[in-house]
């Protein structure tokens, strides 16, 4: 597989056994890591000094990061949605300060007139209200591992030999999920949302009350993660299908692919993995819906993080997507899709609920010939029954 996807190795790390790596790291920081909530006594104990309140206040003022800023500098990244405002990220004229970093910045701006690209420009940070949790198991700072996983939207890839008339889609980030190393791949899977999981599409133009049935994820529960050389299958439901079986059989007839192994998703802790960070792996569900996933970062959880184990996995950042609007009024979001509509020039055509019913029905009776489908959406999220 490395021969096939060697292009990605340029940006990926070497293989890292997560548990072993952090065990060794923990031995190095045992003497200096502050495991509990920060306070003055912990800081002085670590520094090996005994300072008065006045001396601590003076040091706090002198060592503040605010003293490292200069006039006209881009503001510090604040963990909220306002960081996406254009004026925050656009490059400003560097101040006239006799510092080498500022002079180098001026020179670089002259050489490159294009707009600078910032890492989090297209992502929204999700702010959660911190709550006091009682009688709950907490993660231990400096001991429990926090892993970040980037989840991408499914996309259609057009191969080099495919006809140019075939459509393809761009790879787009969906969200970033933070998960504890002690949690399993099955728990990560349960946090991944996809439009293919929301509802089972069925023709309902003659009976709109029967448009929305059970969630597809509750009916078709099979799926797997492919990480390194292993397929991690979801076997929690006895009727789940092993999607990897046909892939492994296909790969055995190709000398450059494999050999592959299989494992059980719900038995695999994330900190037991040995993988490359920054390398794209695959999550597959609903038969043929595939998502790229990337393990982007891992670190010890600290006292500034939410420590309640029950709130993980959690979405920490997401990339906003523009809503699809009704093709008739152009105001409301779509709720219905029509196909083969004899009175509409578009196939398919997208309707909001008001336009769909007012144009296609008179006294609840269907007008003309067409096929109608409910637009897939997460009913639980719409009704406010779940949180991200």
UniProtKB/TrEMBL annotation:
Principal place of residence: nucleus
Location in the cell reads:
Nucleus
The name this protein goes by in its record:
snRNA-activating protein complex subunit 3
Q: Which GO terms describe its cellular component?
A: nucleus; snRNA-activating protein complex
GO molecular function per UniProt: bent DNA binding; core promoter sequence-specific DNA binding; RNA polymerase II cis-regulatory region sequence-specific DNA binding; RNA polymerase III type 3 promoter sequence-specific DNA binding
Quaternary structure note:
Part of the SNAPc complex composed of 5 subunits: SNAPC1, SNAPC2, SNAPC3, SNAPC4 and SNAPC5. SNAPC3 interacts with SNAPC1.
Ordered alphabetically, the record's keywords are:
DNA-binding, Nucleus, Transcription, Transcription regulation
